[in-house]
Amino acid sequence: MIGTSLPSVTLYECPPALEGACPSGPVAVDMRAESAGKTVLLFALPGAFTPTCSAQHLPGYVHHAAALRAKGVDEIWCVSVNDAFVMRAWGDALGVGSSIRMLADGNADLAGALGLTLDLRGRGMGIRSQRFALLIRDGCVVDAQVEEPGKLVCSRAENMLALL
C-alpha cells in the first residue's frame, strides 16, 4: 500500500458549510482529485457513534487538528462505512466543525479497494472498515498504520503527530 496511489473511489460528504441538514443531498468526493497537490491525513474507523470511535478516535483528531496542520497536513479526513447524513450528524454531535472532513464510504468501496474490510455481520453491523490511518501526499500513500482488530494504538492522532 505504501508508495501506491489512492484507489479511484468516490466518497460522499455533507459539508459543514451547509446550514443544518444536507438540503441538496450529499456531495461526491473523488479521492484522487481531492488529494492532488495536498498532504492529507485520512483515518478510518468501523462506525459513527460507536464507543471507541466516538470517545477516543475522532476526538483525538479534533483535539490535535491544529498541531497536525502545523506539521504540514493540509486536510484531515475521517472515513467510515456509514452514509453522509450519519457522518454529518456525528461530526455535528462531536463538534468537529470544519477541522475534519467527515467522509462516507457507505458501500465500503474504499475499505474494499485497500483490502481493509472488517466483517462484523455476526454482530449485526455488516461489512465495515478496519481502523487505520494513511498519510497521503499528492494522491500517494506515504505511510499506513493499520490496527489489529479491537485495538486503537497506531492510528491515533497522537501517533500520527509523532510520525510527522
Structure, briefly:
With 164 residues, this protein is α/β, with parallel strands linked by helices. The chain has helices at residues 31-35, 51-70, 84-93, 109-113, 157-163, and strands at residues 10-13, 27-30, 39-45, 75-80, 101-104, 117-119, 127-129, 132-137, 140-146.
Describe this structure in words.
This protein is α/β, with parallel strands linked by helices. The protein has one domain: Glutaredoxin (3-Layer(aba) Sandwich), CATH 3.40.30. 29% of the residues lie in helices and 27% in strands. It is built from five helices and nine strands, in the order ββαβαβαβαββββα. The strands form three sheets. The protein has a five-stranded mixed β-sheet with strand order 5-4-3-8-9. A two-stranded antiparallel ribbon has the order 1-2. Strands 6-7 form a two-stranded antiparallel ribbon. Helix 2 packs parallel to helix 5. It is globular. The two termini are 18 Å apart. Residues 1-164 form the Thioredoxin domain. Belongs to the peroxiredoxin family. Prx5 subfamily. It is an enzyme of class 1 (oxidoreductase). One of its GO terms (biological process) is cellular response to oxidative stress. The active site is at residue 53.
